[in-house]
């Protein structure tokens, strides 16, 4: 049983690359990674020689080999992102060959459906109340709003935004707030974050996400200790080893690893169980693709505690590529796919079209005033 080849689909001009792994058994599997497109494709091309000819069932040995041979060359960055796509595709292939869903192969499924929260940005503010109402109508019982202008303006203006959001969402909806502290040149510090956390508690916000720069472990440890709302972060961290100091310092209430960055499902599983053992909740970061969302659903269903998966509403790579679209049940949960592997299939023709056309473009203005062109 051998891996014979793979196909790379760099569908998004900057961020998302899909990988389809082929085997001599006829089964193929899907992976995806979040990285800069050119670096991800380059890393995959470099890693390919170590994967072709290997057994698709020896997932942990093969993945650990890729981690070990890349100690000197960019581990934690695009190399680790690319390994995420390979590892995800290995799990999908193994599930198909063994004819088992990944929730079972990950150790066993505790839940037949997992709670989902709908995730959107605050902007454009003019349509925010309408978009919240649409998400509620679609069945989401939990909604996350993120990034600017929250945290880029006064505390009073931030409070106005939260008041407007709570009014649109109603008291019964779980509301989450993502400040996006991995934004370049992030300015807010511990006391700025703490005063916002105290304000958010008055509006019943369930968690505050990324209120500080990702590297500020000490700030996160103090904030987690003192904040009246839960503190969540971890979406930019990669490799299981990077999470250890945050867990040891209790520098978060909720950890948010991204399966398309950290090293795939193997790494996610180990991070998730480490977190469980430290009393930290796991909520996967899901601002990625349908492959990522399906993997997150399987992972969360294999954990004994009830958690959420993030569902990036309106993202074509999550919503428009799959044969069976993700549908919420009456409780606002996503059922665990019961087919083998990830339990989803992707539309190859649509992937090719997206790869040919590119996907994201525009301009970001960072907080130091510089513009960053995405083209
Ligand atoms: Mg976030």
Summarize the structure.
By secondary structure, this protein is α/β, with parallel strands linked by helices.
Structure description:
The chain is 39% helix and 19% strand. With 375 residues, it is of the alpha/beta class. The protein folds into two domains: 3-101 and 348-362, Enolase-like, domain 1, CATH 3.30.390.10; 103-335, TIM Barrel, CATH 3.20.20.120. Strands 4, 5, 6, 7, 8, 9, 10, 11 and 12 form a nine-stranded mixed sheet that branches. Strands 1-2-3 form a three-stranded antiparallel sheet. Helix 9 (240-248) runs parallel beside helix 10. The protein is globular, with a radius of gyration of 20 Å. The model has no long low-confidence stretch (mean pLDDT 94). It binds magnesium ion. Residues 146, 178, 209-210, 235 line the site of magnesium ion.
Ligands and ions found? magnesium ion
Q: Per the principal axes of the C-alpha atoms, what is the gross shape?
A: globular
**Mean pLDDT across every amino acid position:** 94
- What is the CA-based Rg, rounded? 20 Å
Give the CA-CA distance, first to last residue: 41 Å
The CATH superfamily of the largest domain is known as Enolase-like C-terminal domain
């Amino acid at each position: 049983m051998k891996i014979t080849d793979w196909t790379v689909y760099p569908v998004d001009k900057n961020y998302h690359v899909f990988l389809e792994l082929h085997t001599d058994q006829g089964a193929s599997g899907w992976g995806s990674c979040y990285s800069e497109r050119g670096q991800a494709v380059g890393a995959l091309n470099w890693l390919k020689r170590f994967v072709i000819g290997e057994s698709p069932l020896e997932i942990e040995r093969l993945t650990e080999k890729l981690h070990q041979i890349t100690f000197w060359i960019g581990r934690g960055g695009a190399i680790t992102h690319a390994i995420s796509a390979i590892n995800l595709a290995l799990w999908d292939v193994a599930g198909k060959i063994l004819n088992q869903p990944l929730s079972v192969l990950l150790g066993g499924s505790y839940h037949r459906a997992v709670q989902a929260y709908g995730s959107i940005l605050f902007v454009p503010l003019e349509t925010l109340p309408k978009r919240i109402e649409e998400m509620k109508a679609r069945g989401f019982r939990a909604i996350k709003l993120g990034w600017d202008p929250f945290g880029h303006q006064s505390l009073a203006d931030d409070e106005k935004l939260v008041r407007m959001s709570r009014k649109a969402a109603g008291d019964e909806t779980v509301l989450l707030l993502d400040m996006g502290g991995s934004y370049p040149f992030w300015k807010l510090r511990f006391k700025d974050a703490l005063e916002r956390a105290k304000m958010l508690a008055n509006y019943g916000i369930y968690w505050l996400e990324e209120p500080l720069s990702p590297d500020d472990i000490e700030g996160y440890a103090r904030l987690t200790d003192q904040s009246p709302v839960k503190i969540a972060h971890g979406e930019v961290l990669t490799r299981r080893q990077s999470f250890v100091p945050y867990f040891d310092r209790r520098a978060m209430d909720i950890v948010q690893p991204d399966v398309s960055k950290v090293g795939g499902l193997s790494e996610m599983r180990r991070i998730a169980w480490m977190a469980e053992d430290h009393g930290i909740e796991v909520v996967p970061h899901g601002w990625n693709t349908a492959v990522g969302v399906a993997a997150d659903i399987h992972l969360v269903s294999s954990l004994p505690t009830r958690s959420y998966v993030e569902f990036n509403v309106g993202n074509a790579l999550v919503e428009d590529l799959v044969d069976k679209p993700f549908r919420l049940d009456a409780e606002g949960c996503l059922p665990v796919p019961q087919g083998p592997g990830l339990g989803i299939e992707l539309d190859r023709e649509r992937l090719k079209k997206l790869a040919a056309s590119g996907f994201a473009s525009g301009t970001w203005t960072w907080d130091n005033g510089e513009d960053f062109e995405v083209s």
